[in-house]
Amino acid sequence: MKRILIIEDDPYIAELQRDYFGLHNMEAEIVHDGREGLELALGGGFDLLILDLQLPGVNGFDICKQVRERLDIPVLIVSAKNEEVEKIRGFGLGADDFVTKPFSPSELVARAKAHLARYDRFTKNRATERKADPDVLRIRELTVHKAAYRVFVRDREVSLTTKEFEVLLFLAEHPNRVFSKEELFERIWGLESSGEIATVTVHISRIREKIEEDPANPQFIGTVWGAGYRFTV
Questions:
Q1: How far is Cα 25 from Cα 42, in angstroms, rounded to an integer?
Q2: Cross-strand bridge partners of residue 77
Q3: Do both 125 and 142 map to the same domain?
Q4: pLDDT (tens digit, 9 = 90+) per residue, 141-199?
Q5: Are 188 and 167 in contact (CB under 8 A)?
Q6: Rounded distance, CA 154 to CA 157, Å?
Q7: Residue 220 burial by CB count (10 A; 0-12/13-18/19+): exposed, middle or buried?
Q8: Taking the model in full, what pTM does it have?
């Protein structure tokens, strides 16, 4: 049974979420305080995090950042804040989805199940591929170990999230071709995803910060204005 941690200061909303997850055979635990929620989340044992932004103790953005640095589980933000800048910030900190209040509980559960299934597939694929010799992709100072899901720049390992790795690998395997944000979103997140296309821009920016010597003047992932992004070998 999947275990969900709900960090939400509104008791009615939190209990509504828990009830709907329960109807779908998922166990949900509720925490109303951000500091307590962060401690519980980092302690492990949960398969997915439902996170409000306006919380006492520690705000949702800080929780998202710290959880993403330590854990590889889906993080879904559920917030009354619906400005684009808030969504972009959430995605930039590693959130997998952003649901705006008021929301449909059934849709929230459907999104959670989709993200859980995607993470499960990724984990199984990684375990399977690690049994074989890893395929290594070398492009100048960049080395991508596809089977081991590791990336090195000038022999220094850099840490990428699941989605950052998928975006980088896809572009590196299709060099010198321009992909629009819409194409990348479809290829990486899938047609069934209910996320925001703006997350593509955020992920590209974060990848550049980690692999480029000068992110403002990228040598690997370039922007083709008005068209999209291109990986240069």
A1: 23
A2: 51, 98
A3: no
A4: 899 998 888 999 988 899 999 999 999 999 999 988 889 999 999 889 886 555 678 88
A5: yes
A6: 8
A7: buried
A8: 0.60
